[in-house]
Amino acid sequence: MRYLWLFCLSAPLWGQTLDLSRFQNGSTSLAGLWKFHAGDDPRWANPNFDDSSWKLVKVPSSLDKQGYPNFSGYGWYRRELRMNAAIAAQDLQLIIGSGFGAYEVYANGNRIGRLGSFPPEERLYYLGRSMSFVVPKIRRSGQNRLVLAFRFWVPVRFAPPNMGGLNSSPIEIGTASVIENMLAAEKRRQMLSWLPAALVNGIMMILAVILLAIYSFDRRPEYLLLGLRFAANAFVLVVIWLVFDTFLLTIGQAGIIASLLECFATFFAVYGIWSLLEVPVGRWAKMFLFAYIAFGLSGAWAFQRGAASTLTLGSIASAIDICLSFTIVIFILRRSPNIPEQTRWLAASFVPYYLITALRNTPVVVPALARLINPEFMQLLLSTVSVVTAVAFGYFLLRRFGAARAEQERLHTELETARQVQLLMLPSQSVTIPNLRVETVYLPAQEVGGDFFQIAQTRDGSLLIVIGDVSGKGLKAALTVSLIVGLWQEVIDGSEHSPRHVLSWLNEQLLRRVHEGFVTCLCVRLSTDGSLTVANAGHLAPFVNGQELVTDNGLPLGISAEAEYNETQHVLAPEDTLTLISDGVVEARDKTRKLFGFERLQQALSQHLEADAIARSAQQFGQEDDITVISISRQPAAVKPLPQAAPMSVSSPISS
Fold first, then answer.
1. What's the CA gap between 500 and 567, in Å, rounded?
2. Which residues partner with 145 through β-bridges?
3. Rounded Cα–Cα distance for residues 37 and 74 (Å)
4. Model pTM?
5. How far apart are CA 349 and CA 357, in angstroms?
6. Distance CA 554, CA 540 (A)
7. CA distance 331 to 333
8. Residues whose CB is less than 8 angstroms from the CB of residue 219 and which lie 6 or more positions away in sequence, other chains included
9. Residue 205, class by beta-carbon neighbours within 10 Å (0-12 exposed, 13-18 middle, 19+ buried)?
10. What does the pLDDT look like over 119-162, one tens digit per residue?
11. What secondary structure letter does DSSP report for 513?
């Protein structure tokens, strides 16, 4: 019994002094009982300080379970080591596990290393790897004494459980070569532990690049929103890595950056998923989403100012995150029958992700469940589900984009066919009339255009010309052009060729067959003696020798059955030039959004430029709409028409 009492009385002494007469494999663990005292006093680093009244605590272990719940402020650890002269003369190093906050390490009163800095120049780090410190040699005969002291500081706002102090393995002392090997082995283990996160991060970055690249071709909002979401999530992981493995970011800086990225990632995710599923964002989802963002931004500010602790902010953020996750899951399950079939299975893949997210955050809100939910397993499960969901999502988007590109190719082929058909409907040969020279140029802005013109010679030898512009663009405008060209043949075959009658009849036909849009149109009849008759339905007036010919402008075709069109008479003298244009000439814009305008047009006409030169100058200025130019010059005597390889110039379509 006496020996038992001696054993019990000597146990505390073992917590104070550790005999290092020899090393096991070149190092000795310092885990066990250390002296601990809350507060701060520089004298506590002195090896001769009397620490007999200090409390013994277990290392490595959290102070929260040893009588110091939610510890904050300064604290000191001390432990005495005894070693023989052979060991004391070696190059020794001390290794301490991952650290939080700020701390300093002393050996026999000499500071041998630190992490971060204390107030007033506060710099706190959360280093997820061990650090090593060189222990000065002790050159004394016989038993040599080494007293280690560990000073640390944790601010109030960083006072959740298991934070601060010597609470992480390893804590060992050994020869330099052994400690360096231990650090190298730990680094390899750490790199392996980061592989899942690195895989998730790489996939997210690839998806972000793919989505943003797709958005440059297909301007669907879900591509942009989800691309930004994956990019933000990837940068969150980068920030976490910087905090755990480098000194580039303090805890405060990383917290603000991560909070902002998380807020934006959540916002982009919700609106991106809703846009992808082609359903509006619900009221409850909006409420939780904006509450989450508002809390994230205000919480980051309050945390940086010291007005809130990580424990409080983490609990509230986890509660909001749980509500938001369940809101998304419930919404997907309830709306699943209404979700398009091609995206229904993709929507279902989000359900396990958000369920696991909610389950992982539950212990923060309900601490009693911490024993039932393993955080490491939940994080591994969440990473696995994230990879599966991201891969499925990427596969879906690539298939969707491929189908969209195939559809675009099909439409492009159809538009090209429509363009060729439309060109065939335009005049294919120069009209040969004594004493007249006719030039035509047509430059469509897209594959198919909305401009049209027709030239024909009537039975009495007069020249009948019509030029116009259909409202809108694309196939719909091209179909209206086809209708007008078809009606034109009926005009030529008829007996009444006055411009006023032509416009009235076309207006009547369009009102019957076209129910949307309108058509501006100008009809001109030029007799062999130079008599010119003009009727205008909302189109640009003609120009004679560069000067605008004032005409009575009526309503465009296809608007009202009551529209009336009056005729304007003029005589085209020998060597006069009549020019007809579409609004694509004067509405061309340069990079500064300046219009080509009527002044530049009249300047070109005054220089007696040919129709092709006028059209090309407007196109080079900045074409935005179809360009059509018709030039008719009256010659003083009969001349042979100029040979034209093509009666009109057609440029390559400009992509809209």
1. 6
2. 82
3. 9
4. 0.57
5. 13
6. 11
7. 6
8. none
9. middle
10. 888 888 888 888 999 988 775 444 578 899 999 998 877 655 66
11. H
Calculate the alpha carbon distances from 47 to 30, 42, 148 in Å: 17, 12, 8
Q: Can you state the angle between helices 310-335 and 341-365, rounded to 10 degrees? A: 150
% helix / strand / coil in the chain, to the nearest 5?
A: 50, 20, 30
- Asked if 132 and 95 count as a contact pair (C-beta separation under 8 A), the reply is yes
The backbone torsions φ and ψ at residue 535, rounded to the nearest 5 degrees and listed phi first, read -130, 135
Between 113 and 651, name the one with better pLDDT: 113
Alpha helices in 218-250 (DSSP H): 221-245
Distances, alpha carbon 230 to alpha carbons 50, 202, 204, 207, in Å: 57, 10, 5, 7
Residue found under tokens 């075959």: 493
For residue 46, the tally of other CB atoms under 10 A from its CB is: 16
In sequence order, the 6+-apart residues with CB closer than 8 A to the CB of 513 are 483
Per-residue pLDDT tens over the stretch 17-32: 676 766 767 888 899 9
* Spatial contact of 656 and 445, defined as CB atoms under 8 Å apart: yes
Kindly tell me the number of DSSP H helices and DSSP E strands found in the chain: 14, 23
The torsion of the CA quartet 393, 398, 400, 402, rounded to 10 degrees, works out to -170
Evaluate the CA torsion angle 43, 45, 50, 54 in order and state its sign.
positive
Eight-class DSSP state of 654 = P
Q: How confident is the model at residue 451 (pLDDT cuts 50, 70, 90)?
A: confident
Query: For residue 545, how many other CB atoms are within 10 A of its CB?
Result: 15
* Cα 571 from Cα 329, distance rounded (Å): 78
Give whole-number Cα distances, 457 to 19, 423, 485, 491, in Å: 119, 20, 15, 11
Q: Does the structure show a pLDDT above 90 at 215?
A: no
DSSP H stretches of helix in 278-373? 283-304, 310-335, 341-365
